[in-house]
Every structure is written in C-alpha cells, then in structure tokens.
Design brief:
heterodimer; A: 547 residues; TIM Barrel; nine-stranded parallel sheet; 7% strand
C-alpha cells in the first residue's frame, strides 16, 4: 500500500477527522454479494492535474463534493416544497410530510405574499392561497408552524423581495415558542436578481433590493449563525428555458454580485460567505446535469478563492439544493413523469446535492395530490436506500465523457460571466435585457426543436395515446380567499393599531437612512403589522420596479 | 396556415401575479414568425390593463396565459373588462396550466378556446388566425 501520497494524507486527515466527528451511516457498505463498496475510487497515479481539477471530497476545489464522506455520512435532506391555501391547511400537510419521513420543510408562499400584498388587496384577487400559503401577519405564521418545534427542524422559505419580513416573522414565531434565534436552521431564498431575470416576483428596484439582502446577511451573521441567508438560484433561470451552462453562469454571476455588494457594505467575507447556499435545477439529460453540478462547485471554489480572496474553506464550498425540472413534466400520460423525476433526482444525487425536492407527477396539471407527493418522496427514498448510489462518492469522476463535459460547461460558463462583467455587471445586464434575451433565445430554440420533432418528448410529440381517464386533482377552493381575508380583518381589529402605526412610521424613517432594517421590521411584525403594510412603507421609500 | 394580406395584430397578455412567461413569450415569438404583429404586455397585468391595451392597440384577438391557478377568476374578468368598454368582437383565447374540467366554465364565460400544455404551436397559431378572421367578419371588414 502506498503511503505518504496525497490520498493517504486526505484519508488520515480530512476523512479521519470527519468520521470521528460524524460516523458513517454504516460501519461497512456492501454489495448484494457482500463485497465491500469502495468509499472513493481514485486513479492509480494521483498527479497534479487530478489534484487541481478534482481533488478529494471536502477539499478544494470540491469538484467531488463538499464533505469528505458525502452520503455515506449523511443522506441529503429530502425537502419537499409545499404549501397551499391557508396556514392551517399547510400546517396539516407539513405534519403529514414529517410523519412520512421528510427531513426538512420547504414553504411555498402564494403570489400576493411573494409580491408583498395582503390578501385583501384588490390585486390579490384570484391568487390567494393558490401557488402557496397566504401569510398576512405573524398570526398566520404562528398557525403555519403550530406544533412544529422550530429548534428541531430546518425550514426553507421560498421568499425573495419581501424575504426580510417573512424572516422576521419566523424569528418572532420562534421567540413565542421559546426558541432563540441562534437555534434556527433553514434557508430563505432571498435571491432577488433572478426575479428580474426569470421568476418575476420583484417589488423594489435592484439597488434597494440589494440593500435589504445585505441587511439580512449582516443581521443573521450575528443572530442566526445556522441560517442560510440566501439561496442563489439557477432553478428558475433553467425553468425559463436557459441551457445548463447558462444556468451555471447566470447563477454564479448573481452570486458574485451579492458577495461584492456585501463587501462594499463593509461585511467580512469569511463571516457571511459560509452562509451562502445555491439552488439548481435537475433536468432530463442525466450526464450533462451531473457534469453541471460538478462544474458549478469547482467554479465557485475558484471564484471565492482567486477573485474574492476567501481563506476559510467553508466560504469556498458551493452547497446546493436541487429541484427536479418542473418544465420537463408533461400533462400527457402523467405517470411518465415519475420516471422523468427519477432520472433527474438521480442526476442531483450523482452530482452531490445537499438537499432535494422531487416534483410530483401531476404538477403540469395542478398542485400535487397527497398520493403524488408521497410517490415523489418515495422516489428519493428508493434512490437513497435501494439504488446503492449513495454508498460511494462521486462515482462518475474519471469518466472521460463526464470530465470533458464538466470542463466544457465550466469554460462556457466562464465565457458568459466574463461577457457580463465586460458589459458592466449583472444589474446593468438585467437593465438592458442581455441576460433575459439569452434565456429567451435558448427557450425558443428548445421549443422549436420539440415542434419539429428534432427533440422527442415521450407522450407529447411521439408515443401519444388517447387518454380518457382524468387524474384526480387537488383544487384550492375559492372560499379560501374569503376565509383568509376575514382572518386578516380579525387580526387587524384585535391588535393594538396605535402601536402598529407607530412601528410602521419608525420603519419608514429607518428605510430612508442607511440603517439595518431587520430590527425595525422585527418590531413591526411583533405588533402584528401586516406584510402588505410593511411593504407599502418600503415601496413609498424605495419605489417599485416595472418590467 | 393560409397567407394573410396584411399582418394580423394580436395581444398576448399575462393577467395576475405569476411570472411564468416562458409559454407566453414563446407563443408571442412563434406568432411573429408567422407574420402576426404581436404586442406582449409583460407579466403582472390586471384584466383592466389588458383590456385597455388591447383596445388602444386595436388588436384583432387576445391570448391570455396563466399558470398560477387563477384563470377561473382572471380570464373571465378580461372578457368583462372588454365588455365594460363596449367591446364584444375581440376573441379571447386562453392557455396555461388549466385543468380539463375548467374549460367548459371558461368557454361559457366568453373565452373562445383554451389550450393546455403540450399543444402544438401550429394549433395555437391557427386558432389566433381563426380568431382574427372572426373579428374582421364581425366588423364586416373584408380583410
């Protein structure tokens, strides 16, 4: 056996240290025949090229993963995005998911909440409780997490433009449960740049939005050390039709913008950078997706080290959540979607994701039913416990094809990032539509290929059948809107309205200065000021963004 | 589809708050490629804004896209907003994530046609052309 090689060095240091702190799931992983599964396959000769391009798991440049033992230590978090109708209904779904073995919550908010409007606003009409849960005041948040101890679970919240308000509500609910902020674990999406690019739930113009994000970074680094303050998202960029390389490029360029903004505000790199998380899409092309995740990890490590000068290893690790590609699901022959989701989920796991949401088969038709959600979760559990892919680390490494593809995606994404920098950075490229145009063109070409059958989508343009049996669908009843509006009226009646007015006017004053807005917003939500009221104050100071 | 003499002018609108505009943008561009003049409203427009824009731009047909589940409320509101302005001859087509069962309700509310995911672009383009012809026939214009 070779000694004193970089491999034994890694085994004796990083790996041994990791295993002594967090033992692997089993003492021995075996195949069906009883043979031991190799933890990490490496080339016979470990040369410099291997060390600079791939390295070992948990070690720069993290191409092979961010932890030394990866899923042998702990499986990825199975985190199903859910939420609909009222807080009470969503609370029931969360408790069902926790009973079924899900290990993290992921809150979907309805569109009015995501855009900072109350349920009784005229513009909210028809949208209340549709794509997620409606949250107007802290009272709704209390119901949402009723009987769910916030120090025991991690919660991801898909909220962007008004993220600071929902985070404040979460912290305030924890307080009421007797859980201090430093015990909270979870993630807020808080990635507003991709809202202008692809997702559309923007409120304020880019600059004040970036200020709110920086305020969150700052407040959280001293108050919620275990909370991920942003989830820099390529998911929606890909859903809007980008290519894999564009997804990586635009996401990392956005990430660089957040880092630079925080540095400009005087924050310390190695303090906030370790709380940055990422969120990617897993599409159908299994091999390309695996390469994409590996390329993204390596690129971010290099960017953080070489461009920003990060020294803390944690600052250089790209940790990410993955969701399977919603846009790839078909309304035709919905059960075929189970297979698509399986392939996509496998790509995410082989690519080293930290957490995963698997879409349900019926999401091209409506919100998923409970049965569909269970199948989606079972898909992850089968990959985790039956497929064997979680028992060894980065098994595709060293494949000529995968490594070549990883390099190619990296090179293409680097070119795009350089182009964005030449054009004055992400904000300038959003304002002049450069990024949006790139995505639109890619989306158009993709759809043209489907129309011309250059690209086969099973059940859509080939292998079609007549379907007369309609799948059961989950519907959000129209009464939900009335109930939510009535709920909000009651809270507004019962709260101390004088105090609310005072807190709102204090907030408006602070917004006009360069003070951190987290504390004034916390004070406002504790008084049961509504999300719409708080955002109205901020709108009056910051203005609104129009596409 | 058959050749058209002068370009048909249509409006593609996104009522409601959802930002899923991949489909709307694709249809807008596919219609342009076929020689239509297309006004795309952008996302997050109210039914009133869409009706007003359609009238102001003098379009022959409207296409609406929604993926948030708010179609039962928002699509009929566009038809009503047109009617409030005295306009009944601009056909309104809908598309998006719309359950089969909702289609009869939407047709009864005045929508001409509803397209669900996976519909070939040609089918949708032909529906727009047909809607435009209907519009001009209603106006008695030999277009």
């Amino acid at each position: 056996m070779k000694t004193d090689t970089p491999f034994t060095d890694w085994q004796e240091n990083e790996l041994a240290k990791s295993i002594s702190r967090f033992p692997e799931r089993r003492e021995k992983f075996t195949t069906h025949g009883g043979a031991e599964v190799q933890r990490l396959a490496v080339p016979e000769e470990i040369d410099n090229k291997y060390l600079t391009e791939l390295g070992f798991p948990g070690k720069y440049p993290y191409t092979r993963g961010v932890q030394p033992t990866m899923y042998r230590g702990r499986l990825w978090t199975m985190r199903q995005y859910a939420g609909f109708s009222t807080a009470a209904e969503s609370n029931k779904r969360y408790r069902y998911l926790l009973d079924q073995g899900t290990t993290g919550l992921s809150v979907a908010f309805d569109l009015p909440t995501q855009i900072g409007y109350d349920s009784d606003d005229a513009i909210s009409s028809g949208e209340v409780g549709k794509v997620g849960v409606a949250i107007d005041t802290m009272a709704d948040m209390e119901t949402l997490f009723s009987e769910i101890p916030l120090d025991k679970i991690s919660t991801s919240m898909t909220i962007n433009s008004p993220a600071i308000v929902l985070l404040a509500m979460y912290v305030a609910v924890a307080e009421k449960q007797g859980v201090s902020a430093d015990k909270l674990r979870g993630t807020i999406q808080n990635d507003v740049l991709k809202e202008y690019i692809a997702r559309g739930t923007y409120i304020f113009p880019p600059r004040p939005s970036l200020r709110l994000i920086t305020n969150i970074f700052q407040w959280c680094s001293s108050n919620t050390p275990s909370f991920n303050t942003i989830s820099i998202s390529g998911y929606h960029i890909r859903e809007a039709g980008s290519t894999a390389a564009q997804e990586v490029a635009f996401t990392l360029a956005n990430g660089m913008t957040y880092v630079q903004t925080a540095l400009d505000a005087g924050l310390e790199l190695d303090v906030f950078a370790r709380r940055l998380a990422f969120f990617f899409n897993a599409h159908n092309n299994l091999l390309e997706e695996v390469a994409k995740f590996r390329a993204a990890r390596r690129m971010w490590a290099k960017i953080m080290q070489d461009h920003f000068g990060a020294t803390n290893p944690a600052s250089k690790m790209l940790r990410f959540h993955t969701q399977t590609a919603g846009a790839s699901l078909t309304a035709q022959q919905v059960n075929n979607n189970i297979v698509r989701v399986t392939i996509q989920a496998l790509a995410a796991v082989l690519g080293g994701t930290q957490s995963l949401h698997t879409n349900s088969r019926d999401e091209a038709l409506s919100l998923p039913t409970e049965e569909s959600v269970r199948i989606a979760l079972r898909t992850q559990q089968i990959i985790a416990h039956e497929s064997g892919v979680a028992d060894t680390i980065d098994p595709f490494a060293g494949s000529y094809y995968i490594e070549e593809l990883t390099n190619r995606i990296e090179a293409e994404a680097e070119d795009l990032i350089a182009k964005i920098e030449d054009k004055g950075g992400v904000v300038a490229c959003i304002e002049d539509g450069f990024i949006q145009r790139q995505i639109e063109n890619a989306a158009y070409e993709y759809q043209k290929d489907i129309e011309s059958k250059d690209r086969i989508i099973v059940g859509v343009n080939e292998f079609m059948i007549e379907e007369d049996q309609k799948p059961e669908l989950l519907r959000v009843k129209p009464e939900v809107e009335e109930a939510q509006v009535a709920n909000l009226r009651r809270v507004k009646q019962e709260r101390n309205n004088e105090l609310v007015a005072k807190r709102l006017s204090e907030l408006r004053q602070c917004a006009g200065t360069d003070q951190n807005l987290m504390e004034p917003i916390l004070a406002a939500v504790r008084s049961y000021a509504s999300l719409g009221e708080i955002c109205k104050e901020l709108r009056s100071v910051f203005g609104e963004y129009r596409d | 589809m058959e050749k058209i003499n002068r370009p048909y002018r249509v409006l593609v609108g996104k009522p409601g708050l959802d930002g899923h505009d991949r489909g709307a943008k694709f249809i807008a561009r596919a219609l342009r490629d076929e020689g239509f003049e297309v006004i795309y409203t952008g996302i997050r427009r109210t039914p009133d804004e869409i009706a007003a824009a359609a009238i102001q731009e003098d379009v022959a047909a409207i296409g609406l896209s929604s993926l948030s589940g708010a179609h039962l409320k928002l699509f009929p509101e566009v038809v009503k907003a047109l009617e409030r302005r005295g306009v009944t001859d601009i056909p309104v087509i809908g598309g998006g994530v719309i359950p089969e069962d909702d289609i009869p309700t939407l047709i009864a509310a005045g929508l001409t046609e509803i397209f669900t995911p996976g519909t070939p672009a040609d089918t949708i383009i032909n529906a727009f052309a047909e809607a435009c012809r209907k519009h001009f026939a209603a106006q008695g214009d030999n277009h």
